[in-house]
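Write out the bound-state structure for magnesium ion.
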Amino acid sequence: MKPLLQAVPEAAVELPYYVPAGNECSLFELAWSKRLPLLLKGPTGCGKTRFVAHMAAKLGLPLHTVSCHDDLTAADLTGRYLLKGGDTVWADGPLTRAVREGGICYLDEIVEARKDVTVVLHPLTDDRRILPLDRTGEELQAPGSFMLVVSYNPGYQTLLKSLKPSTRQRFVAIEFDFLPFDHEIAVVASESGLSAQQVRPLLQLACRLRALKGQDLEEGVSTRLLIYCASLIAAGVPAEEAVLATMIEPLTDDLDVKQALIEVARATLA
Ligand SMILES: Nc1ncnc2c1ncn2[C@@H]1O[C@H](COP(=O)(O)OP(=O)(O)OP(=O)(O)O)[C@@H](O)[C@H]1O
Ligand SMILES: [Mg+2]
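---
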């Protein structure tokens, strides 16, 4: 089937480095060409943001990223009137800009946003693809190249903070996890400058710590933290110090758990 929209040729742009885990790149491209919104779910630091940056560059689209939080209102996304030299002027928010430009709007940690935000997203994420701006009286029709991408970490979800079925069922969804072992080594080595051989035992340790998720730890060591660790070691920090500062301290404040993690690290890296 012929795609509805044509992507910019890859060679024309410098793509942010991204190693795919599976078919997520073609799924993203297909969702975009079919004008379907996309939901990415997965643990912190596993590559969701990098993936969106990579795909936006690949498709040659402007990217507007918003980190959602519990004070974020619909007006923060759509826009508001501002006072400028005695006049009130309308200023588009990032969602409105993305719709007008036909770019990508990426809402990170969408479950943190307030409920009125979903009211704005609903008409934009079904076949109407419209963004009503009550304040200006406009009703924007999203151009074909506009895409809404949202992400969240299911690990942090509570009953109070979850997406309503009527919201989540508007999205094509992709689950993210940490890359397969050898791919993750390649990513950490490439991002930190440490050799693959030196990264290997760090990743082995990370895998052991990830196995503790749900027991003693809320979240396992992310690819992001592994890159921090490898970068410190590449800069000359002794491995034990680097591991403590990046793969243990950020994970827990509990002294007993910390001690247990130090033991696991010693046994793994010995
Ligand atoms: N598949 C990948 N290809 C290339 N780099 C990756 C990949 N996965 C992770 N990384 C690296 O890990 C870092 C963290 O990833 P990223 O910021 O995309 O995580 P995230 O899933 O968006 O996390 P959060 O949920 O905390 O926002 C990136 O800056 C990048 O260096
Ligand atoms: Mg992110």
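---
Residues 48-49, 108 surround magnesium ion (ligand 2) (CB under 6 Å).
Residues 36 and 127 are 9 Å apart (CA to CA).
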